[in-house]
Specification:
single chain; alpha/beta; Rossmann fold; Arc Repressor Mutant, subunit A; 2 domains; five-stranded parallel sheet; 9 helices; 39% helix; globular
């Protein structure tokens, strides 16, 4: 019988950590809790193949959850990260995604929604998708506008300047390039990039589009490559001149 997924919970409020662990264990998962970021990072570094998901609070003693997530991604680990936080501002969510989180859930949260997100991340998370063969239409390199992208090395330059991209951003960028010219519904991005049910309500896609426009568009207010199609979804255009 295969071993159940191992979930790391990083939460300094002991009563909440115990409650999360209780409910996850009731679902059959193995759970280890930590009250601070450094302890969790030491565990992940020592046993990287034994961690299937990190549930991460942001307001931790000494080292913020943002820094913990950054450290995980800096070590080139693609372990799914689910942020749980009382911070509800759009900039907090945006920063969470910028440092590499896969999902962001605000406190207080609905238990069934939390468990659903856990199941989806464990099933379709970054690690689960890593073993898939790339699409036959997926190029190792791509250029558009004044941007150059190397998906093999994760190197991105815009106007000759190196740009730091998270693994989730690279996955989304690749999906757009693979489906150039097509209108992609928001639900499709949730399912194929975030590994979430298309029925989940989230503005994560909009936050990533703003980040892409700020990074790649000469005039973010008048995008030419990353377009929003009202009531339909998004569309990537590599060479706008060919469509004019």
């Amino acid at each position: 019988m295969p071993e159940q997924p191992h979930i790391i919970v990083v939460e300094d409020e002991e009563h909440l950590a115990k409650g999360i662990k209780y409910n996850l264990c009731a679902e059959g998962y193995r759970v280890t809790t930590f009250g601070d970021g450094p302890a969790a990072l030491r565990f992940i570094e020592a046993r990287p193949d034994d961690v299937d998901l990190v549930v991460l609070d942001l307001m931790l003693p000494g080292m913020s959850g943002y820094s913990v997530c950054e450290a995980i991604r800096a070590a080139e680990r693609d372990t799914p990260v689910l942020i749980l936080s009382a911070r509800t501002l759009a900039e907090d969510r945006s920063r969470g995604f910028d440092v590499g989180a896969n999902q962001y859930l605000t406190k207080p949260f609905d238990l069934e929604e939390f468990l659903s997100r856990v199941r989806n991340l464990l099933r379709w998370g970054v690690r689960g998708l890593a073993g898939r063969a790339p699409s036959i239409h997926s190029p190792p390199r791509a250029t558009f506008g004044n941007a150059e992208v190397n998906f093999d090395t994760f190197q991105v330059t815009v106007g000759g300047q190196a740009i730091r991209m998270t693994q989730l951003e690279m996955k989304l960028l690749r999906y757009f390039i693979e489906h150039e010219g097509l209108v992609i519904p928001r639900q499709e991005l949730l399912e194929h990039v975030w590994g979430m049910s298309g029925n989940v309500q989230t503005r994560a896609q909009d936050q990533f589009m703003r980040r892409f426009r700020k990074t790649f568009e000469p005039d973010p207010a008048n995008p030419r490559h990353f377009l929003t199609i009202r009531d339909a979804g998004y569309r990537f255009v590599g060479n706008p001149e060919e469509e004019s």
